[in-house]
Amino acid sequence: MTLPREPEAVGLDLPRRDGPVKVLGTATYAYETALAGAAYLHPVQATVARGRVTELDTGAAEALEGVVAVLTHATAERLASTGNRELAVLQDDRVAFRGQVVAVVVADAPEVARHAAALVRVGYAQEEHDVELRADREDLYAPEKVNPDFPTDTAEGDVDAAMAAAAVSVEETYRTAMYHNNPMEPHATVALWEPAGDGFLTLWDSTQGVHSTRSALAAVFGLEEARVRVVCPYVGGGFGSKGQPHVNVVLAALAARAVPGRPVRLALTRQQMFCLAGYRTPTIQRCSLGADRDGTLTAVAIDVVELTSRIQEFAEQTGVPTRMMYASPNRRTTHRLAALDVPVPSWMRAPGECPGMFGPEVAMDELAERLGLDPVELRIRNEPDVEPGSGKPFSSRNLVGCLREGAARFGWAQRDPRPGVRRRGDWLVGTGVAASTYPVSRMSKSTATIRREGERYVAEIGAADLGTGTWTTLAQITADALGVPVARVAVRIGDTDYPVASVAGGSSGMTTWGSAVVEAARAFRARYGDEPPEGAEASGDVGPADERFAMHAFGAQFAEAHVHADTGEVRVRRLLGVFAAGRIINPRTARSQFVGGMTMGLSMALHESSVLDPRTGHVVNHDLADYHVTANADVEGIEAHWLPEHDPYVNAMGSKGIGEIGIVGTAAAVSNAVWHACGVRVRDLPITLDKVLPALERPSAGG
Fold it and tell me: Which three-class secondary structure state does DSSP give residue 454?
């Protein structure tokens, strides 16, 4: 007998399963794990940007009541692997950047640890440092690849010849700032070696991937992965910064080894996160566009300059989206790095696509202006038939649909293309548009297990929920794959005791984990049928992606910006995004992700900038008082919509990633709207009033 099929859970607007425990404050985050006898760690950080430690006086700290250990490069355990130099902490006397950890104090109370750390006296042999990123540096170099494994440079046709012959062209330089991930929950770790001396390490860590953290820490300490357990049921935001382990995880484990049998807690302060937990590299983008009079692109190029750390290379793939966005016979993308005395950059929401779509999408607006062509129409006219570069057909590509739907919802047809002609009281009003894209990524390794437990079915996978809705959406996928009500499905995630799962990064989580769950469900039904016995269990692995197609999500961002005619203050009154991101698993969690991404994009456009002092080598605005992020008062309305999209090739669910595409294109749309409001092109983010005021001082400003 075949049971009647349950109504589909995928697509239902279900409330988040983790919502009640978070609202009630009963969700246990890493640092809050209840463990008896915990000690607390506080790092001592370098006050020079480059040099050597020549003296470490720990006497006063060690004499303080409540201090149980002080570790330095002379006393800390030798790590089994130091290949990742970011994680090779307290292994020698070298100082590679300001804020590097040069000692740690472990004490019975966090206040004691902090006070004792301030008592440690450090002497340095200071060396000349260099932290300035410039496009004219003679020491720029081409990395072997850009994140994660894209070719560094690409070239098709002859861009220079096409630019010289172009009827209309744009050649401009655009800059994005240094940005720091600032999740509400700081990077936090609790480490315990148990039993003492037996070499089994348990970590309660705020991470986007328990299994990837386990692999990294096992290598650092020379352990079999089976001897490391990582637990993380809840994450208070990550935005990429918790996608790879940083030094805090190693520090906690080192300190716990020094105080056998006691768990050690470490939560980075907001200030410490600005030098110890990654950030997005600033970029300098030279963008070149050439076109015929009808707007057909004849040349597209982006040449990117970024920074990296001397001790560990990270090359953001800023030029990659230009390789596939618009049709053109002549194309070029390049990446060059400056290795500087700075902390190691890392992932931040939509690495590559987020900064890499700013320059080209503002350049497209400038090209539309010079052509006298509507910027929406210019993008539509340059739609490729197949993916440029690879020549693969798209599994689905609905950028044109997003542009047209967004234009209709936004009221774009009523737009006067002339800049500086609309005014509401003292405010100049403008509107702008930009496109967005993000690749569909499926990681190669993830496994799910489904088990019958009483009246419910349990899906287990070591996935992560960063606040994105994984607890809920995985249950919806499991329910449909099994053909049972979603109320009968439980999900267990966030622990290496569950089957291996890929990191929650690259908007790949649901694509990867959901595919594994579907395979497990198919195996479960094939083995047990419609009436499985108690304890019935089956597992499934994520399958390979369909390599025949190019797979991407697309979107269109529209912004309405107001610029005060006297002060230059910029306000964005309205943001509207329309996305084509495959099948939407849960509209409630999806809208939250789109709106969150757009809010971060607005923050990038108007506010965020980590100010690196070249004299001292550190970020001076290293807290949320001086590093401003967009809040509710900074935008009056954000709308996120999506097109119904059926794509049978991306995965069994037909879904695409949504966590990152919302941020892509937003900053460009805002910049384009500011130009339309007041007539000034801001090519150097953020858009601050000092960059707008010169245009307002001209007699013609505001019409």
Answer: coil
Distance between CA atoms of 361 and 668, rounded to whole angstroms?
A: 6
Q: Is 202 helix (H, G, I), strand (E, B) or coil?
A: strand
Any idea which residue has 């019935």 for tokens?
536
Per-residue pLDDT tens digits for 386-422: 999 999 999 999 999 999 999 999 999 999 999 999 9
pLDDT tens by residue, 519-530: 999 999 999 999
pTM here? 0.96
Average pLDDT over residues 473-491: 98
Among candidates 485, 484, 502, 506, which has minimal Cα distance to 493?
A: 502
Residue 468, both tokens: 């994105």
Residue 108 burial (C-beta neighbours within 10 Å; 0-12, 13-18, 19+): middle
Q: Is residue 104's pLDDT more than 50?
A: yes
Give per-residue burial for 608-628: e unless 16+ CB within 10 Å, then b. bbbebeeeebbbebbeeeebe
Residues 6+ positions from 461 with CB-CB distance below 8 Å = 446, 447, 448, 449, 474, 492, 493, 498, 499, 501, 513, 516, 517
Per-residue 3-state assignment (H helix, E strand, C coil) for 264-285: EEEECCHHHHHHHCCCECCEEE
Mean pLDDT of the chain: 96
pLDDT at residue 693 greater than cutoff 70: yes
Cα gap 112→153, rounded to integer Å: 52
Q: State how far the Cα of 176 lies from the Cα of 625, in Å rounded to an integer.
A: 21
* C-alpha distance from residue 27 to each of 191, 233, 310 (Å): 19, 9, 39
pLDDT at 15 over 50: yes
Q: Is the pLDDT of residue 107 over 80?
A: yes
Q: Which residues contact 379 (CB under 8 A, 6 or more apart)?
A: 326, 364, 399, 403, 435
Say which of 306, 405, 645, 660 is annotated catalytic.
660
Q: For residues 417 and 415, what is the distance between their CA atoms, to the nearest angstrom?
A: 6
Q: Catalytic annotation on 171?
A: no
Of 547, 542, 515, nearest to 653 (Cα)?
A: 515
pLDDT(458) > 90: yes
pLDDT attached to residue 4 = 58
